[in-house]
Amino acid sequence: MLRRPRRNRGSDAIRRLVREVSLQPSDLLQPLFVREGVGIREPIPSMPGIFRLSVDLLAQEANRCASLGLPGLLLFPAIPKSMKDPLGSEALNPLGLIPRAIGAIKESGSPLLVIADIALDPYTDHGHDGLLGPKGEVLNDETVATLTKASLVAAAAGADLVAPSDMMDGRVGAIRRALDDAGRIDVGILAYSAKYASSFYGPFREALGSAPKSGDKKSYQMDPANRREALLEALLDKDEGADILMVKPALPYLDVIAALRAATHLPIAAYQVSGEYSMIMAAHQNGWLDATATLLESLTSIKRAGADMIISYAASQIAPLL
Ligand code: PBG
């Protein structure tokens, strides 16, 4: 045999030499769940190792993430039911949970990028990402107007990037124009471009109490069967001014990540969502697989598919191993 591919796998040294992608702490972004209160670190049962943190504990957590070499974090608000309403009004409160959380991290002098997720579902009593019309339909343009205001609130609080996760049409362009008009050309947009109507979001919705009270999200989030549509969405977001394009979830959609990688020069992010994380942790707890090895393999695969960065609940758990 002239060709013996195993020669290049014979030792750790040769394997390292021919390795095509390698995961770095700088590839990973850590999502954090934020809540009211003082000194609270509340475990999320469906997401082992993940907590809802009160604002006063955030600076310390951000400091830990920075010391591990992570470049940034995403913030998600777990707000009390009593503060939710049909319009998601709390999303526009300049003194709300997320603006205070951003402030706490920034005031601590953290070098991390703080990314504010922009969507209404943590704030609406019906759990949808938008305002509802008379027949319960999710209204597009009215929702975009609110998301635009929420983006300005996050920017004013100090967010480095806003990340619209709602999948309304035209929101990236509207947010870009509003930020520019407000003189905030410095604030970037990480667009959830190809966000699928996925069952893998279950644990996240439990963490925030944000599951839709009726219906599903299929009229705005994408059909898992569609890949061309992901390209359409991504190229629209690019034309509307997105700085980074995202595919979500990650592992079940590696082909979509690869397709976007081939279709644009913009950076591509992938979101290893709550269900992807929880499946691995649950199997680990049952002794069925090893969480660390499985997480490393999943994250490496997502990078190999073409993602430049990965949002992962395991970011701070995995970073020390890289
Ligand atoms: C809200 C949002 C969701 C996630 C991120 N932002 C849930 C949803 O769309 O229902 C899911 C993240 C995860 O599962 O980890 N728009």
In short:
Helix 8 (254-263) links the parallel strand 8 and strand 9 (268-272).
* The CATH superfamily title of the domain at 23-215: Aldolase class I
Per CATH, which architecture of the domain at 23-215?
Alpha-Beta Barrel
- Could you give the distance between the termini? 36 Å
Number-wise, the strands total: 10
* Structure annotation, total helices: 11
For the biggest sheet, the summary is:
8 strands, parallel, barrel
Bound molecules: ligand PBG
Decide which structural class fits the backbone.
alpha/beta
Helix coverage percent of residues? 25-40%
Rg estimate, integer Å: 20 Å
Q: Can you walk me through this structure?
A:
This protein has a domain at 23-215: TIM Barrel (Alpha-Beta Barrel), CATH 3.20.20.70. Helix 3 runs parallel beside helix 4 (140-157) and helix 7 crosses helix 8 (254-263). With 322 residues, the protein is of the alpha/beta class. The mean pLDDT is 97. The two termini are 36 Å apart. The protein is built from 11 helices and 10 strands. An 8-stranded parallel beta barrel has the order 1-4-5-6-7-8-9-10, surrounded by 8 helices. The structure holds ligand PBG. Ligand PBG is lined by residues 117, 119, 121, 129, 165-166, 201, 204-205, 217, 273-274.
